Amino acid sequence: MIQKSTRLDNVFYEIRGPIFEKAMDLEKQGYRVTRLNIGNPAPFGFEAPDEIVHDVMVNLRNGQGYTDSKGLFAARKAIMHYSQSKGLPSVHEEDIIIGNGVSELIMLSMQALLNNDDEILIPTPDYPLWTAAVTLSGGKAVHYLCDEASDWYPDLADMERKITSRTKGLVIINPNNPTGAVYPPEVLQQIVRLAERHKLIVFSDEIYDKILYDEAVHHSTAAFTEDVLCLTFSGLSKNYLAAGFRAGWMVASGNKAIASSYLEGLNALASMRLCSNVPSQFAIQTALGGYQNIKDLVLPSGRLYKQREVCYERLTSIPGITCVKPSGAFYMFPKIDTKKFNIQSDEKLVLDLLIDQHVLLVQGSGFNWAQPDHFRVVYLPMVEELAITLDKLAEFLKTYDGA
Ligand code: PLP
User: Fold this and answer.
1) Which intervals hold domain Aminotransferase class I/classII large (predicted)?
2) Residues whose CB is less than 8 angstroms from the CB of residue 138 and which lie 6 or more positions away in sequence, other chains included
3) What is the ipTM of this complex?
4) Is residue 323 lining ligand 1, measured as CB closer than 6 Å?
């Protein structure tokens, strides 16, 4: 028997896990499954802005060779200007690495840093790649609580309690996946002060920083400190609806002087994978400099805004379900009354729903949430389909018994 590496023993990514496989099986058998499980806008009819697609097309011939391993100079320059406009201190084009999506850079940032048993503070609930990347790199993911009773903002006291002599850094996901929370500047200030006191690196995943509703304003964590090293992550997948292009970036700012060895390590790993997908890199400058069509989608007249409204209304009208209304991204993380439905396993709940109604969600435990009382909904489908799908969930729950 050929065995997988033991390094994978505790590595999980439930968004494409066993229940997802089961949904694929159902589709192969001819059933139509409504996928509210993955934040992939294109299959729901969202299109990247034309000028971005155009720039990739006209540059296909120019994109045949490798680039600098950090990425095209013009693309990095555009990222530099964008970072400066968000207040990130002392960013130059050499502080930027372009990757095959933020995913690759999350892996790289952990692999270059961690020795066995080094700890990284990660939110619960989290975007699970962060936890997986830490574990796969030999480190230990320590989860700090985001508090549902406080609009899912990070619980600073819990974060501080969990810092040990082995803690190397902390991860912030803002706007948040899976809760949709957008953090106010005071919260970010407190987090960076804590990072400064304990000399932690700040990893700020800001991949949804343009998907904001109502009066929400996004602030980059790195803008609040020059004293610690901050790595800020973003890309084209969500803000520009181009997840398949696999284009993301990572920006180092703040106290780079204390981190020359780590930054060298990051560059070494970036060099070993030569460079990221080159045709997609040509889209970056256009995306950051051009007309931002995502803005129209999040206005009250826009598609994403309307979908959020319908999703929230339908979910919260189901007896036994409550939800904090999200201010950003395109996810909701509702709470389900486990007593009412006799739920011991959120995985069973999601699997039962899939089999019964052919609706695919992801269980809260897939986001490293410890209790079986949450699940995540992706509200990318059109309002009509969302309404029908959430009505199926309501119907299913009328008689559900999780025992
Ligand atoms: N970070 C967060 C919070 C995400 O939700 C996702 C994708 O869903 C990623 C990173 C990965 O994005 P990319 O497509 O750039 O690899």
Assistant:
1) 60-379
2) 7, 114, 115, 116, 117, 118
3) 0.99
4) no
